[in-house]
Amino acid sequence: MPGSYKCARCKQKVEIDINVRCPFCGHRILFKERGAAIKELKAR
User: Fold this and answer.
1) For 7, which of 13, 16, 22, 44 could close a Cys bridge (C-beta 3.0–4.6 Å)?
2) What InterPro entries does this protein's entry cite (predicted)?
3) Was 22 annotated as part of a binding site?
């Protein structure tokens, strides 16, 4: 599951593949980064 994540503690960008741990601080809680696209929805 490769992807771009952000560490919850040190806020660094982290690329993970097998190890789910921040290489900078060792924290194990990572957030998946969102895309930059803005969605507009029409209200009913």
Assistant:
1) 22
2) RNAP_P/RPABC4, RPABC4/Spt4, Rpo12
3) yes
